[in-house]
Amino acid sequence: MTYHFHRYQGDLSDFFDQVFTQQYENFFQEIKPNEQKEIFQFVLEKEQQILAAASCQRLYETLKISDLAVKSQYQRKGLGRCLLKEIKNFAKKSGLKTIVLTTRSYQAKDFYLKQDFQVYGSLDDLPFKSVKTYYMAYRVD
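and the corresponding structure tokens:
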């Protein structure tokens, strides 16, 4: 059998949806629920200037924080904690079960640990040599 490997410019979402739906239904022996994929962005502003922001994606019962940042001159003033508290409240009110995120050794692992996130995995030299990537989760009450 001969295979042809190449870059593809079309939309593959139907292909992936079909394969992943079949896997889900074979494993759980039930119909896969709709994905409920949504994007949410949160900001903390002062005088119409964004001081801190987060970009999140909901998938099923999980909220993934894709990006969370506080301007450097406002770090260590409680803004990140405040933003994360609001995200946790949003997740709880929305019926979500888990918040997940990825951070790196030069970023904010200790900050997230103080906010009750747990490390559930890590990889060395990713995405760069001498950098460790941490995978973290928070269980919403």
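(Above: one complete record from the training split.) The first helix runs from residue 13 to 28.
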